[in-house]
Fold:
Amino acid sequence: MSNLFNIKLSVQNKNYECSSNDSVLESGLRHGLPMHYKCSNGTCGVCKAKLVSGTIKKIKHHDFVLSQNELDDAEFLMCCNSVESNIEIDLDLIDNVKSIAIQNIDTKVKSIHFINKDMAMLTLRTPRSKTLQFMAGQDVELSFKGGTYRYPLASCPCYSMTLEFHIRNNKPDAFAQAIFNKSLKVKSKVALKGPKGIFVLNEASTLPMLFIAWDGGFASIRSLVEHAFSLQMPNSIHFYWAYPATESAPYLYHHVKSWQTMIDRYTYHSIACEFDRYQKNDCYKKVAKQIFNALDLSIVNQSEVYLCAPAEVLIYLSELLFENGLDDSQLIALPI
Ligand code: FES
Structure:
């Protein structure tokens, strides 16, 4: 039988729950906390933390040897210990993308779900002993049989071994072609390199968070929003999802609507834009204007705005936002 205990991070003044069956590291990651770790099996020593109060219990043997000084200082390995009471610990969290090393991981395809003829949701699984350390909103390179392409992670770091990607059927993209011509299948091996990118949450901000995605730009936004949920950030969250009006709804419409039933402080708006996916060159200015017209400026101008859209839309839309009162320090943008 397992019991639930509270873990308090003394420096950050954050709390999370840990079952007496789980390691301190596992449950921290599941709660979205960007903890330092590497091997998850007691070999590297990267997940060291200091026990300030309470009792822990060793649940896994470890080869890494803590020095006498570290033991005297009540340091322990988070991946090899669980809790026997409420505890307080002292550790540094990853607070910027530069502190995360580029990792090379051999993953396997867990599932491929075709949402429609042009969009697939790919789920990869990492080995248990080599999960990907990343911050929500970052992206990675995926390679399969010589085809390599960079994709944003659509999942929250709290899902640990399970990584989700939204892949559009782009002709010049060999990796996407392998999905749509079905040569990439469940259990295929996919090499992953990353993470890269700086489109991450400003977790210290107390402003409302307003997310704007164009079509497949939703992948990065999903990672950020679900990460904000897992961190239980108190900020209100507003999400505007723009998509071509020729399609009946954005591709995961029901999923983003369902967030409304789980979180009170979340609002969602779809923006159907006149746009031809195959004759797109002239459309970007018009799309930017249509998105701008759908926004509530009284909310936009007091928010941290996260915008993920094609570079052309991004340029026109950010000009409109700045002309109408948004400070450039409030905008975090990612071109797709
Ligand atoms: S993550 Fe390597 S020892 Fe814990």
Q: What stands out?
A: The radius of gyration is 21 Å.
